[in-house]
Amino acid sequence: MNSNEKMKELVKEKYSTIAGQAKDQNLSSCCADNAYNIMAEEYSDLNGYVPDADLGLGCGLPTEFAQIKGGDTVVDLGSGAGNDVFIARRIVGEKGRVIGIDFTEAMIARATENAEKLNYENVQFRLGDIEDMPVTANKADVIISNCVLNLAPNKHKVFSEIYRVLKPGGHFSISDIVLQGEIPTKWKEVAELYAGCISGAIQKENYIEIIDEAGFVNIKLQKDKTIDIPDELLAAYLSEDEILEYKSSNTRISSVTVYAEKPAKDSRNCCEPASNCC
Questions:
Q1: What contacts 24+ positions apart, CB below 8 Å, involve 200-208?
Q2: 81: closest CA among 18, 163, 156, 148?
Q3: 140 with 163: CB under 8 angstroms?
Q4: What is the pLDDT of residue 269?
Q5: Which of 5, 41, 57, 110 is least surrounded by CB atoms within 10 angstroms?
Q6: What is the CATH number of domain 3-265?
């Protein structure tokens, strides 16, 4: 098993456990596990909010900026228990459709159960890897994602897949964690910090470059919020001297929401994943 596959298995294991917990369990967990929810935004005031689908795992509110319209087909990458899917469903209405993709079976099961309880017929959850989406080309009007792409080892492949799945003229709005400066080297070896979206984050400049290289246009930074790491979380992984060094550095961990469009004239002729033409 290569390093990328090991990372994916790590994420599956961690999030399978989280799928069986309530939001308050996640929020009251020990300091190491707080890496999963220190970036969470408040959802409860949004139309379409379903408490059972909110595990407190996001780092933004991508639907707030996604410019979703009635009748749209929306795809949510790393849909978890369905939180952003249900918010998007409220916007697209009965004539629209929302597809959630997650590679953790326990999350798909929980999200599907939530949808069935609410009798939502225009919502579907699919088990799959966002580096190889189980969605046909030119399908989505809008793609959203909330604090998930930093967990994908091959971000180039993910954005290539986003490009393939979007309709020409479609767009995405994605919330994610990025860096400016370097995090402590030892953090990159800590499982909880990788699955908690910190050690898997890349430089903001590189993140935007990947989006540009994938062929997207009109790239906009919709939100950029500094994430302050609590002292108790720092103390779980760093010595006192290392904490002082980190705090005095220029390192900035931030939650960003990024918007970009697939050109209306798609000259790349992207096809299905099996052909690898994109």
A1: 200/7, 200/150, 200/151, 201/150, 201/176, 201/177, 201/253, 202/150, 202/155, 202/178, 203/178, 203/179, 204/178, 204/179, 204/180, 204/254, 204/256, 207/155, 207/176, 207/178, 207/256, 207/258, 208/258
A2: 18
A3: no
A4: 57
A5: 5
A6: 3.40.50.150
Would you kindly state where each structural domain of the chain is located, as residue ranges? 3-265
CA atoms within 13 A on the CB side of 62: 34
State both tokens at 140.
Answer: 């989505």
Residue 236 · residue 196 · CB < 8 Å: no
Nearest Cα neighbor of 23 from 46, 48, 43, 47 is 43
Q: Which has the closest alpha carbon to 130: 118, 115, 147? A: 147
If you ran DSSP here, which 8-state letter would residue 97 be given? E
